[in-house]
Design goal:
Blueprint (H helix, E strand, L loop, with lengths): L39 H10 L15 E5 L12 E5 H6 L2 H7 L2 E5 L5 H15 L4 H15 L1 H8 L4 H10 L3 H5 L1 H4 L3 E5 L4 E4 L2 E4 L1 H9 L13 H11 L1
Antiparallel strand pairs: 1-2, 3-4, 5-6
Helix pairs in contact: 3-7, 4-5, 5-11
């Protein structure tokens, strides 16, 4: 499977050489909700096409997946512009939303690709709430990763996705924005065990629900410890 590349970015539509949106099929903007959610029937069609599998990292889950707009234009609902993405991969493209959800921090981990880091994060959070040496290894692994915030602070003067998103959105020309991958090489967004969402006038952390599903008998981990945990742990230590 060829994965769609993950590039840290913000909710900023891509422009073509003429300075116009790259969308091929614009639709009535009323079809898309204010928070960028596509209609349920279109979501389901894309999820089924992609077999509920994240096209950026390969994580498969029947629930709590997202729709990614490849050209970042929410009015472009063409099938070839929409991809299934897991919550961790999806938020990389929307750093401006990460601070609102309080769902990630920047770390310096050039030896681990962003998609691989997401698999590691899921393994850590699933294993951490188990018992015994696996849970302890998960906690130690998380501590090692959090220490990498200091190095990204040294290089970018921040580990806050909100500050980086402000720079990407407000201070870069279109040409500079397209070159951001080179400037951010080695910088990763590490997903936290939080996802603050708003319903009506209430805010709550949705991540415990997501984690419970992942660990359930119907979830991707099926109530079992992530496979090859020791290998994952060793990979984290060597990368640090």
């Amino acid at each position: 499977m060829d994965f769609y590349p993950i590039t840290l970015g913000v909710d900023r539509p891509l422009l073509n050489a003429a300075g116009k949106h790259t969308s091929k099929k614009a639709v009535d903007s009323s079809s898309v909700s204010a928070d960028g959610k596509v209609p349920a029937d279109i979501q389901q069609k894309i999820f089924e096409r992609d077999k509920h599998t994240c096209q950026c990292c390969g994580f498969q889950a029947q629930k709590y997946q997202e729709i990614l707009f490849k050209d970042m234009n929410k009015a472009n609902l063409a099938d070839d512009n929409l991809l299934t993405a897991c919550i961790f991969c999806h938020q990389c493209f929307y750093l401006d939303k990460v601070s609102t959800m309080r769902s990630g921090v920047l770390v310096w981990m050039p030896d681990i690709e962003q998609a691989r880091l997401h698999h590691i994060a899921r393994a850590i959070y699933v294993a951490r709430i188990s018992q015994g040496p696996v849970a302890e290894a998960a906690r130690k692994s998380l501590d090692v990763i959090m220490e990498r915030r200091e190095e990204v602070k040294r290089r970018l003067f921040t580990d806050d996705p909100h500050i980086l998103s402000t720079v990407l959105y407000d201070y870069l020309s279109s040409g500079q924005y397209k070159m951001r991958t080179k400037k951010l090489e080695g910088v990763r967004l590490f997903p936290l065990d939080r996802k603050i969402v708003r319903e009506a006038d209430l805010e709550f952390n949705q991540f415990p629900q997501i984690l419970a599903y992942w660990r359930s008998k119907d979830g991707p981990f099926g109530g079992k410890t992530p496979p090859k945990w020791i290998t994952i742990y060793q990979e984290i230590l060597s990368a640090a």
